[in-house]
């Protein structure tokens, strides 16, 4: 019970105004409310809800005093105004920076305050840390001093590490992706065994949010090469960039995707922000497992004192109990909603093993007993801790609940997971090894990377909490793990991977996206069809030729036609009357069909929400289009009612006239000879007449030949004019909006690629770099379990063909 | 005491009901469908593996199925009851993957045949001890197989003289390990049991999964025995008391409860527990066999419980069937509605002369000076086909939209629709051209008798224009009347109009049928629901 007292003292010493709840805490509350409002301005309701649940305990989750404390201290850690005013100069000096961040946040529209804080962080990677923790004021100055000395070295260390890390980080991210992708599919499968009936109908099916919420993890020594230097900045730039990308992605997609789809992403962002605002000197590790596996016994063994009740009664532990090795974890525990009476301290002078400074251990209830509320506790806390120790025992290590409901969905969190086979004392002889090997096999089948041979992944240990056999090794691993202080960031990173994997279906396209040139041309053709461009052109060409024929034809032919018309008036078609202005000259059905076709083609392969928006854009564009085309047909189709007359027509007419004249002259001459008026001379008049008779049609034929080219050109010109006008109209109304939608999608997808971390976040994403990252990735994933390699590779291929 | 009056009528009613259940299908992926399917399978398993054989042959041995969580010590328990190692025990989970049935050699014939669990292939391992004593072993279907081949479900049959006659023990796989096949098989084996023996342990007695199974047993009112295994002897009394309290709380207080302490033998190596540890259970089971009344009680309680459970399970199944039918109706209604709408729209467009637009209009404007009758006719027919195609694809889009909100439409058969826009275009174009050809024949008939007959193609073109051009083609009608006379023109227009309506209806109907074909292939009818309920009521009357 001394432990409890210590925690309480520490809390009150830190917040003297607590009992009265005046000025300071009131202003804190307000600022929390403000940040909440900022969030809701940029996020939709669902993510705000997520915010609420993650930042403070809901009513009734703890006893009154506990709840009050947690809310207040959260508020304090979020704003820190009251304490930092009183504190030493370095802390005070931070305030201007804070408010600058605030200004920037309000200046940039759309960025949540948390986002601004996040973005701002790079400026003060080392400095801001201590400030965030709710340090007792008595230790504050000491902490400040030590920070000052640390700052210089850490900075250079950090830069050095960053450069050497690049390769390793990439590899690690490959692995992450391979795993993250499994998460989705496994989560889907996970539900199938729970389908009811005798053995299968086990308890409540994990609901959607249920398995989504399960993601614990843990980490460890693979980055021992960071030479043990305390890593003071919680999130490295890559992770920050990915979080920023995710935030932007959520903003970009809100109009297209429903809140439910984005809720998970919003939750990850909230968790990231919330965790970031809390102490990064602490690592919160939960002990999870089935009932009777010995969680509490292990907890006590690690703490060195019997804190948690152990017993034979199943289920034993009903509520989570926390044990903090160092001070300043109040904010973290508030976030876990663990009431003050369940916060303990370990045996202070425990001399055994390495120091576990910074460790906050949480003993969870079981996840598999008939008590449903225990499972709810577990599910809730697993989403907010930094790492998890899974305790299994020889009897239950192959339980479906453990593997399908928890381990598989959190396969991506392997680096922040420890799996411990407890109760080895119950196994005879070398059976422990057999069981451990079998456990490793099962974990591997779950897709969990095992931390063997120095690779990152889950550590698997066997021990007996009862006899203490193997507990030392666990302490060692934990000590190293806690000293690295990377668990929180890795947890968030794994969360991010899981969220990205889950969002993949709504962002990744099955094929190359875009409107092909062929589709555009087909669309124009259809529109031209709708306004009848080809037929109009043909009609214009024929009209031109008809006119030419009329102008240059022999008069006899014209006379004959006229006579025919007179004789059979019925057959003479009247020219159609000029179309009235209100006529619907455009074929509506063709326009509609054209827009639908082009929309479908543009949307092919897109994820459903984006495909829908593309189709909608096309359909919207098609609505006013026929009317516009009607107008256009009136203006463009008949600009000049009469075809122009080329310059050679008079000449042709003259030639035709002279041929007719020749015929007449020859005829008259002959007639004159017949009646004896002219001397008989058959040759000349006959020649003249023949010349006229042959020449007339000859001229007409020549004219027709000559008219062909110009008529054709005239017709083509008329068609082209109409077609181009229609195409321009269609482009503006349909193609451009569709292309804009596609562009929006592409933008979102690039953002998504950035979220997955496939590419170093930069202002521009060059396709070349995508390809490069892809090859690296597929090379890196070669080591992971077979069958998974193909998938990341495919994805990269697809992504690298995205842009045009 | 529950007694069962087994009459042929009851058996008939039962097998009729069984057939109805077997023919119930749930092809649409509604939310309740997977559960209904599993329910159907389970019910079928209970009918086939237990109820029907049991009612036919009440004298058959009692089948005791030992079920429970992985690692609870089921195999060790069976071995100890039998007195020798018949089922392999071990520390690796899940241990038992092949169910093992142990019975007295005299009872072997009951299980060697396919009386119960017909879908499991029988396998047996020769037993060195009584090899010579068991000549009938070679009968039946049990050829020896070296282990269970992958994918094949087998049942290993062992005989042991130590078991009393009329008692058979079945060591089932676990109900909760991550080998899904085990869980399914265990559920199926449970269905065949006269007596359910639920084994749990000190570490597990609060687990959700076994409790679920216990509740199921209670629901079916099966004869149940509960064994609390592997209890460390220090806490034996404590744990046993708590478990008893939990059972009482769940309404299972009267269930016979046996506690077996954790002994070094139960941990590993597959050793047998001392006879004293399992003696109470053994005695209890033996008593069921030796006392005819007790045996009949255990047997008839399970059977009657199962029959009673039909009262609630059959309506559930029927409900799922009718939900399927309702969903199918909704899907059909969406299709019908979309096509109705499009049909109305097409009629409107036809009346407004929407066909005479675009290319067709250009042709009509330049006719007859710059355009031949044939070209005009082609353009108009093509325009008609475009109108029909447009409405068909609009209907398709509308249906897609409506179906996307229906979970039932996610069925694989419905989802993989061939995107045959070209196909539809081709079919519709064909239909439109056929219409114009028939019209041309009418015209030829009409003009044949006239002296000085006008060109049939010209008349057809004018007729088509007049039919499809609405107000804007008034002059076409006049020209038509001038050529073949007002009477003939009227007659032609009447016939042509009727033909047009038919053609449009035909096209839309054909396309709608194509759309509905996959759904129709699923053959979801309302009758099975009524049949299920009817079979149940017949059974009730016979009981």
Descriptive overview:
The complex is a heterodimer of chains A (about 800) and B (about 550). Chain A is mainly alpha-helical. Chain A has helices at about 1-15, 25-40, 45-55, 65-80, 80-85, 90-105, 115-120, 130, 135-190, 210-215, 235-255, 260-275, 295-305, 330-335, 370-380, 400-405, 430-445, 470-485, 485-505, 515-530, 535-550, 555-565, 590-605, 610-635, 650-675, 685-755, 765-780, 790-800, and strands spanning about 285-290, 320-325, 345, 360-365, 385-390, 415-420, 460. A 7-stranded mixed beta sheet of chain A has the order 3-2-4-1-5-6-7, sandwiched between helices. In chain A, helix 23 packs across helix 26 and helix 25 (about 650-675) runs antiparallel to helix 26. The model of chain A is unreliable at about 1-235 and about 760-804 (pLDDT under 50). Chain B has about 550 residues and is of the alpha/beta class. Chain B has 18 helices and 8 strands. The relative contact order of chain B is 0.11. The model of chain B is unreliable at about 125-150 (pLDDT under 50).
């Amino acid at each position: 019970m001394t432990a409890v007292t210590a925690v309480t003292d520490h809390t009150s010493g830190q917040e003297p105004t607590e009992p009265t709840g005046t000025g300071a805490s009131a202003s804190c509350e307000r600022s929390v409310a403000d940040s909440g409002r900022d969030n809701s301005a940029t996020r939709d309701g669902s993510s705000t809800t997520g915010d609420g649940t993650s930042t403070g305990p809901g009513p009734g989750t703890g006893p009154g005093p506990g709840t009050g404390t947690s809310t207040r201290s959260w508020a304090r850690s979020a704003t820190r105004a009251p304490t930092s005013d009183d504190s030493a100069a370095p802390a005070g000096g931070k305030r201007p920076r804070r408010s600058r961040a605030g200004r920037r946040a309000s200046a940039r529209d759309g960025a949540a305050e948390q986002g601004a804080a996040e973005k701002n962080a790079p400026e003060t990677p080392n400095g801001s840390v201590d400030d965030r923790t709710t340090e007792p004021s008595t230790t504050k100055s000491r902490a400040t001093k030590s920070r000052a000395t640390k700052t210089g070295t850490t900075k250079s260390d950090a830069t050095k590490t960053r450069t050497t890390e690049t390769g390793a980080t990439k590899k690690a991210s490959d692995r992450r992706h391979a795993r993250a992708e499994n998460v989705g599919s496994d989560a889907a499968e996970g539900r199938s065994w729970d389908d009811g009936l005798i053995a299968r109908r086990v308890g409540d099916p994990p609901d959607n949010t249920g398995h989504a919420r399960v993601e614990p993890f843990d980490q460890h020594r693979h980055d021992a090469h960071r030479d043990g230097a305390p890593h003071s900045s919680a999130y490295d730039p890559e992770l920050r960039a990915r979080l920023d990308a995710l935030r932007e992605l959520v903003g970009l997609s809100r109009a297209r995707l429903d809140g439910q789809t984005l809720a998970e992403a919003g939750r990850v962002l909230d968790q990231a922000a919330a965790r970031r605002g809390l102490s990064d000197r602490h690592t919160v590790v939960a002990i999870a497992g089935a009932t009777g596996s010995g969680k509490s016994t292990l907890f006590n063994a690690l703490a060195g004192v019997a804190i948690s009740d152990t017993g034979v009664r199943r289920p034993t532990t009903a509520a989570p109990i926390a044990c903090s090795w160092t001070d300043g974890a109040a904010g973290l525990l508030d976030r876990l909603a663990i009431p003050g009476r369940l916060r303990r301290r370990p045996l202070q002078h425990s001399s055994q093993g390495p120091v576990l400074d910074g460790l906050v251990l949480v003993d969870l209830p079981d996840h598999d007993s008939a008590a449903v509320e225990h499972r709810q506790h577990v599910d809730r806390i697993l989403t907010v801790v930094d790492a998890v120790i899974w305790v299994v025992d020889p009897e239950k290590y192959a339980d479906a609940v453990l593997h399908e409901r928890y381990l598989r969905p959190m396969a991506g969190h392997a680096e922040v997971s420890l799996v411990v086979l407890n109760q080895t004392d119950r196994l005879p002889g070398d059976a422990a090894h057999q069981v451990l090997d079998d456990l490793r096999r099962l974990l591997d089948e779950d897709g969990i990377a095992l931390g063997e041979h120095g690779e990152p992944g889950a550590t698997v240990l066997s021990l007996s909490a009862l006899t203490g056999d193997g507990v030392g090794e666990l302490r060692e691993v934990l000590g190293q793990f806690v000293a690295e202080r990377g668990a929180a960031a890795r947890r968030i990173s794994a969360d991010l991977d899981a969220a990205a994997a889950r969002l993949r279906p709504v962002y990744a396209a099955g094929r190359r996206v875009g409107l092909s040139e062929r589709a555009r041309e087909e669309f124009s053709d259809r529109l031209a069809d709708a306004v009848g461009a080809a037929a109009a052109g043909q009609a214009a060409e024929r009209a031109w030729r008809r006119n030419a024929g009329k102008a240059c034809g022999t008069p006899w032919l014209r006379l004959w036609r006229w006579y025919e018309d007179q004789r059979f008036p019925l057959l003479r078609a009247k020219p159609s009357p000029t179309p009235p202005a209100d006529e619907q000259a455009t074929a509506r059905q063709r326009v509609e069909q054209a827009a639908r076709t082009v929309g479908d083609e543009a949307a092919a392969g897109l994820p459903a929400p984006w495909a829908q928006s593309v189709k909608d854009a096309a359909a919207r564009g098609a609505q006013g289009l026929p009317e516009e085309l009607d107008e256009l047909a009136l203006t463009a189709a008949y600009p000049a009612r009469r075809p122009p007359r080329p310059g050679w027509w008079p000449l042709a007419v003259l030639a035709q006239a002279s041929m007719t004249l020749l015929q007449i002259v020859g005829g008259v001459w002959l007639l004159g000879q017949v009646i004896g008026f002219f001397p008989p001379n058959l040759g000349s008049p006959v020649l003249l007449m023949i010349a006229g008779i042959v020449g007339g049609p000859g001229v007409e034929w020549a004219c027709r030949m000559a008219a062909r080219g110009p008529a054709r050109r005239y017709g083509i010109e008329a068609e082209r004019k109409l077609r181009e006008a229609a195409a321009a109209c269609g482009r503006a109304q349909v193609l451009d909006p569709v292309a804009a939608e596609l562009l929006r999608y592409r933008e979102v997808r690039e953002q998504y690629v950035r979220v997955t971390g496939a590419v170093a976040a930069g202002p521009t994403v060059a396709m070349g770099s995508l390809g490069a990252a892809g090859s690296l990735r597929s090379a890196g994933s070669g080591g992971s379990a077979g069958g998974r390699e193909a998938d990341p590779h495919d994805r990269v291929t697809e992504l690298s063909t995205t842009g045009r | 005491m529950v007694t069962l009056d087994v009459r042929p009528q009851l058996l008939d009613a039962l097998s009729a009901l069984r057939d109805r259940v077997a023919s119930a299908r749930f092809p649409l992926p509604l939310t309740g469908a997977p559960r209904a399917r599993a329910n159907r399978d389970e019910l079928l398993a209970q009918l086939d593996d237990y109820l029907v054989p049991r009612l036919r042959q009440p004298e058959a041995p009692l089948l005791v199925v030992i079920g429970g969580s992985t690692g609870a010590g089921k195999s060790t328990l069976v071995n100890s009851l039998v007195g020798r190692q018949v089922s392999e025990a071990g520390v690796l989970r899940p241990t038992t993957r092949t169910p093992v049935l142990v019975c007295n050699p005299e009872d072997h014939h009951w299980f060697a045949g396919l009386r119960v669990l017909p879908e499991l292939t029988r396998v047996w391992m020769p037993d060195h001890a009584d090899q010579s004593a068991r000549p009938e072993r070679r009968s039946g279907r049990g050829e020896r197989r070296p282990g269970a081949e992958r994918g094949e479900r087998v049942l290993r049959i062992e005989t042991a003289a130590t078991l009393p006659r009329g008692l058979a023990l079945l060591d089932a796989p676990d109900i909760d390990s991550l080998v899904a096949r085990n869980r399914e098989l265990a559920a199926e084996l449970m269905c065949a049991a006269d007596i359910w023996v639920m084994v749990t342990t000190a570490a597990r007695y609060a687990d959700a999964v076994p409790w679920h199974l216990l509740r199921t047993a209670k629901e079916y009112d099966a004869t149940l025995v509960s064994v609390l295994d592997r209890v460390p002897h220090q806490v034996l009394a404590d744990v046993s008391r708590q478990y008893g309290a939990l059972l009482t709380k769940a309404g299972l207080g009267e269930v016979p409860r046996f506690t077996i302490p954790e002994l070094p033998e139960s941990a590993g190596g597959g050793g047998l527990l001392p006879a004293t540890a399992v003696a109470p259970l053994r005695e209890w089971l033996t008593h069921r066999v030796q006392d005819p009344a007790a045996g009949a009680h255990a047997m008839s309680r399970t059977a009657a419980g199962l029959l009673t459970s039909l009262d609630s399970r059959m309506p559930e199944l029927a409900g799922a069937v009718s939900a399927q039918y309702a969903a199918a109706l909704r899907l059909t209604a969406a299709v019908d509605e979309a096509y109705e709408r499009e049909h109305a729209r097409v009629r409107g467009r036809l009346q407004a002369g929407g066909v005479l637009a675009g290319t067709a209009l250009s042709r009509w404007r330049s006719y007859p000076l710059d355009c031949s009758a044939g070209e005009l006719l082609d353009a108009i027919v093509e325009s008609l086909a475009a109108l029909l195609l447009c409405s068909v694809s609009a209907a398709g889009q509308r249906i897609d939209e409506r179906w996307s909100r229906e979970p039932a439409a996610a069925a694989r058969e419905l989802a993989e629709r061939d995107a045959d826009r070209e196909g539809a275009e081709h079919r519709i174009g064909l239909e439109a051209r056929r219409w114009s050809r028939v019209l041309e024949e009418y015209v030829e008939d009409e003009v044949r008798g006239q002296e000085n007959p006008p060109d049939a193609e010209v008349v057809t073109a004018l007729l088509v224009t007049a039919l499809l051009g609405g107000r804007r083609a008034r002059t076409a009608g006049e020209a038509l009347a001038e050529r073949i006379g007002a009477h003939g023109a009227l007659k032609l227009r009447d016939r042509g109009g009727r033909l047009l309506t038919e053609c449009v209806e035909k096209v839309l109907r054909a396309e709608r049928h194509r759309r509905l074909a996959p759904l129709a292939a699923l053959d979801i009818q309302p009758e099975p629901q009524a049949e299920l309920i009817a079979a149940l009521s017949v059974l009730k009357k016979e009981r």
